[in-house]
Amino acid sequence: MASMRNAASNRASLKLDRQVNLKTSSFKSRLPPASSGSAVRRSSPASLASGGSKNDDGVPGRVRVAIRLRPRNAEELVADSDFADCVELQPELKRLKLRKNNWDSDTYEFDEVLTEFASQKRVYEVVAKPVVESVLDGYNGTVMAYGQTGTGKTFTLGRLGEEDTSDRGIMVRSMENILADISPDTDLVSVSYLQLYMESLQDLLDPTNDNISMVEDPRTGDVSVPGATIVEIRNQQSFLELLRIGESNRFAANTKLNTESSRSHAILMVHVKRSFVGREDTTSAENGESSHMTKPFKPILRKSKLVVVDLAGSERIHKSGSEGHTLEEAKSINLSLSALGKCINALAENSAHVPVRDSKLTRLLRDSFGGSARTSLIITIGPSPRHRGETTSTILFGQRAMKVENMLKIKEEFDYKSLSRRLEIELDKHIAENERRQKTFEDEIERIHLEAQNRISEVEQNFADALEKERLKCQMEYMEAVKKLEEKLVVNQHKQDRGDLVDVKCYGEGPEHSVSEDISEVRRLLQNEMNLRKVAEEELKILKSQLDHSTYSEAGGDVDMLKLRKSLEEETRQKMKLEEEIIVLRSQMLQLTFEADQMRRYLDRVPTRNGVDYSMSPFRPPQPKDIENGHSASYAKLFEQVGLQKVLLLLESEDANVRIHAVKVVANLAAEESNQKRIVEAGGLTSLLTLLRSFEDETIRRVAAGAIANLAMNEANQELIMVQGGISLLSLTAADAEDPQTLRMVAGAIANLCGNDKLQTTLRIEGGIKALLGIVRCGHPDVLSQVARGIANFAKCESRASTQGLKMGRSLLIEDGALPWIVQNANNVAAPIRRHIELALCHLAQHEVNAKDMISGGALWELVRISRDCSREDIRTLARRTLNSSPIFRAEMRRLGIEC
Length: 900
Known about the structure:
Helix content is 58%, strand content 12%. By secondary structure, it is α+β, with helices and mostly antiparallel strands.
């Protein structure tokens, strides 16, 4: 016995030596050191030389494996009460011993060993949380549970914890972690929930979608399931509801090993898109130091995926007692798990060929083992020695999986949508800044102009005051000089008259001397006067030159201001043109985005028909309802971004294309009743009528008439159309137009107006009925249907007015000659036309005064036919009651021998 114990001890030691030393400092550990007994699988030869450093090929990351022991259940407590557990856990050493018998055991090491007392929170933190954090950083991640049926895989992964929140599984806790870390404004989280049942991929959120195809990217090898339902997650409660729906649709059965044994592999796919702004690394200078030159920020979109896989449990048929359909399910489960085990073996042994195409399960998990995802595997085992074989197989599966190494790669790309939004914001800021600067510039020009005007006025006033002052001064000096000369002349003459001739010789010298002095004084004064005149003339010249200079400066300022005004006007025109182009481009961009989304959604959901897979074809039949809804959403979005006033201003644009786009936007907005009141209040109806009156372009007239037809569906708008001359304008358009679509729009607008009791007389006076009858020249069924609808509406209003005693005399339709056309088309092959005409005849016949005209026009026979052969019961009843209630019709039918 001692020798047997020693031999067993030696075998255990040898077994321990053969194991790969996979113990690390933590579950998120680095790549383990190489050992002689390890055969680690890498995704590319480049990763072998790169070690743990990050390079272009990715970051090496080994598959991490944790093992969890399920506590004994009630059956095992009874059946195995005399036997010890087949496993012995050593969590502090991260190893377990698998007992072969009472004296021999094998020892295995894992990244984490979880006892039967480990909490769900502990399991999540050591198994799934590192993977979830990697997913939030932009890497793909996988969390998978593998083990025998009934060992707690679904409890570990998919437990909702509705009764006890501490029981929440990895799925629920992972979504809590993701929602707590992302930003709802910039990030997006969406979920798909699938099951692989008997090699058929089915949608747990949509049970009718039970055969989803997988698509493999030929360039990257990535496998996707475009046909699966994708639901956007905003809160934890909606995610829990999705998990409840998925679990209710998952296949399960009662076996000897598990009362609720999962019969399918459940795959939860969580797609995370995160947007952020990153700066590229600084460029290195020649001296080796980083320079201050950095590239600008760029928007980055990181797309990552978390895959949580709850594998169906492996089972042995003789133990589970499966039979019938359950037996077929067990075979399918074992085959897919066997294929997964083969792939793990090939990867662990570094084989050149990995049989990933043997099963859909291995194709789906292609990125998880040997790919670019960070993968954590939790294997679950039971303590019962009766299932030692299944426990050994599960442990060996985990040991082989630990030898597989993936190359982790961040999934990021340039975020064009974010850049587009940022550029639009910057464009709006630049436009606002330009407007602010333009306003500041205009204010500055106005201030300079006013200042120049004030300075010119001040200079002119100063010059006029100085000139007037100088003139007065010169005038005063001149008058004073003349006055002095006159006084001296009088004094001299007086002295000469009184002089004595005798004393001429004696006194001659005195007067002669005095006269000479006076002459000298006069000459001096004259010379001074001349000098003053010259000085005044020079000052006058100087002031004139200053005036001319001021005038020239003013003229130069006017020229500059004219140039500035022209520049401002040109800039304003450019700005208006740019705004028009922006609106048109936004409209086109929204339209193209909508069409692209419609194409993508159709390709995702269309099935294979007639042997042709339309999901891979670039063409698809149009879906009118989707297109109409998409157009409405696109134009509503454009309406919110641009504003109604700007759109209406574009109706008056000189550019024909801008005008056409603007009237299309108004027409589509008018189709929504909620927008009609705002359009009319903003003057949209007047603008549309002006377009219909002013432009001969067929497209503009057609779309404008359609918009008016939409507005005419509202009774309040009908009266406004009448007040603004819309009926006459529509009548003229009906007479001039030849295009069937234009005529259909005009006929639809008039038909809507015909349903208003208050407009009957006005419609006839302004030619509305004549216009309808003239439109029938087109012959197009859609046009004739609108004409028939208008006549039916008009006849109904007349019938109601006659019943209420508000109208006497023949029908206006009969007076305008509509009866022959009504009788001619009463049995039209087109159902809409025939139905409206039949209603019109019934309403006309209800007024007794019309009976004779209808009999002479052949309408009686049509009424009899309608009462017998009409496909609609209500119209047959109305025709029969009308014929029986009219004495004239009854007498004529008795005369003709007709029974109704």
